[in-house]
Design goal:
Layout: H1 5-15, H2 19-28, H3 33-42, E1 58-66, E2 69-77, H4 80-83, H5 86-101, H6 107-112, E3 114-115, E4 118-119, H7 120-131, E5 135-144, E6 148-155, E7 162-163, E8 165-172, H8 177-194, H9 206-221, H10 227-245, H11 260-271, E9 276-284, H12 293-305
Length: 306
């Protein structure tokens, strides 16, 4: 099978493995990117976390919050130049505010909603005609809690409420709202930096866990050690995976030592009421922009400390 240079390049960017290893993996797996990635990981040639290049979409992520509810929207444009246009930014702020107040949670409902006497879709069409560049409302999500707060954080802020990454964090508690909001913002900053896949282990898909287990088992068997040792090695690798992928198992970037679950336990004692993390939403513009995780985490920690 003929493997294109662009496919090899894409796998190399995702895996960090060498060009020849990437081409061999693609040939062996008949061009299947996921299977080739798994093959490289089994051989210890790729990291667990997939990486990808910058997505074509530009634009901004907008966030709006009030009390126990918040909404995040991604509005795409063709260039960063348009994302810096005040009319583009004003439209996104108006859309997020409308979605929050009208309890809108789908793009279809948002497009049909009324904004300044016209539908949001018609308003956007007019903006496209004025600016001369295509734009699209890509996605929206809403997060609420019964009692407590939904905290927010915007990273790479262009104007208040708009930036390149938007995070919502739901915290259920009867504790002091101001202190909950401060904790929630720190947790949102943490999520912006660490990109967790799920809130807890139970929320991870069974397919994801099975896939990781299979990869770790294959690698462990190559050690030639007894089956019982291999199983312990697999379980140890899974625990490390959870520490990377699961929010409650991650180490808090703000202090660099506490697990998120421990941070919540401490907050519960300090506030005199249970503090429960009920969910989170993380929107990154283009979703898949490659950043150096450690540098980003350090940046967030410094901002929190400052």
């Amino acid at each position: 099978m003929e493997i294109s240079a662009s496919l090899v390049k894409e796998l190399r960017e995702k895996s960090g493995a060498g060009m020849l290893d990437c081409k061999k993996a693609l040939v062996e797996n008949k061009g299947d990117m996921d299977a080739a990635m798994d093959s490289l990981r089994k051989k210890g040639l790729a990291s667990a976390a997939k990486k990808s290049g910058r997505a074509a979409a530009d634009g901004l992520v907008g966030v709006a919050a009030q009390g126990n509810a918040a909404v995040v929207i991604e509005l795409n444009a063709e260039t960063d130049f348009v994302a810096r246009n005040e009319h583009f930014q004003k439209f996104l702020l108006q859309a997020t505010d409308l979605a929050l107040k009208s309890k809108i949670d789908t793009i279809e409902k948002l497009k049909a909603a009324s904004l300044n006497g016209k539908t949001v879709e018609a308003t956007l069409t007019g903006l496209i005609a004025t600016i001369g560049e295509n734009m699209s409302l890509r996605r929206i999500q809403r997060l609420t809690v019964n009692q407590g707060v939904v905290a927010t954080y915007v990273h790479n802020t262009m104007i208040p409420g708009c930036g390149k990454i938007g995070v919502l964090v739901g915290i259920e508690s009867s504790g002091n709202a101001e202190k909950l909001s401060a904790l929630g913002r720190q947790l949102a900053m943490h999520i912006a930096a660490t990109r967790p896949e799920s809130l807890d282990v139970a929320s991870l898909s069974k397919d994801t866990i099975a896939r990781e287990r299979a990869i770790y088992a294959d690698k462990a068997k190559q050690s030639g050690k007894p089956a019982e040792i291999v199983e312990k090695m697999v379980e140890g690798s899974l625990r490390k995976f959870y520490e990377q992928a699961v929010l409650l198992e991650q180490t808090f970037v703000i202090d660099g030592e506490s697990k998120i679950s421990a941070v919540l336990e401490k907050a519960s004692k300090e506030l005199g009421a249970p503090v429960k993390l009920t969910g989170f939403i993380r929107f990154e513009l283009g979703e898949g922009v490659e950043k150096k995780g450690d540098d980003f985490a350090s940046e967030v920690a410094k901002m929190a400390a400052g």
